[in-house]
Design a protein that fits this description.
This protein has 259 residues and is an alpha+beta fold. It contains six helices and five strands. β4 and β5 form a beta hairpin.
Length: 259
Amino acid sequence: MPTLTDPLADAAESAAALRGLAHATRDMPPTSTYPVLGELIASTRSLRQVLDQLTRSHVDAHELARTDDGDPFLGRVYALAAADALNLAANALDEVQVRLDLASQHGSRIAWQPAGVDLAGIAVDGPTRAPEAAPRWVSVVFLQGEEADEVLTLIDRNGPDAAVAHLAQWDYGQETTDAALVNGYVYDAPPVGALDRSVTVAEYTLTYNPTLGHVSLLRSRSPRRSCRPGGRGPPIRACSVLPRRAPGPVRASRCDRPG
């Protein structure tokens, strides 16, 4: 919940919420797009206000600015330059807001039809597609920002297979599957965005986007190979090309644990 008084805590919560939204909208029904657009319009207006207030903070307090070595002149220059850049960013959001509002207007005129209805809105005889299969893919890990940059660098240097092997060390088998089921990160097919790249290695599918800076690893719920001893087929072992991260949101694999 927002504190309304602590900008650091509220900024961190907003960033976490947007990361969650970026993940959740990768595989969403079209009927959800219009209400999501409405929330994005409101969020853009709030972000505009935040940028305006950050601009004002830099201008109002620029006399107090110093560089790391105590230079007051350069400190004031940097404070006002930051304010100018923030003001430009805020103004750019005006165009974003206009475009989102236009998209929302168009979306409000769409009546999404259920499967099995033809272009005239008349139900067709018989099913138009096979019944929905049980979800088959679970999310193992989703990375953005600096964590994703490390894996993207690994892909450039050693190829996507190396990235799959590296990220597979954080697959806890059934525990990962259970967590994905609880959190709703289960998909009929690996969700791939329009600009995403993907590669499948054994039971894993890696999707990544160097432009947007995110990486995702998914695993089939019925793996052909197993990370655990005794599983069918040889396990995918983790590469040592990247150091294992200290305790955080991603955990080390049980493949590398003794016993």
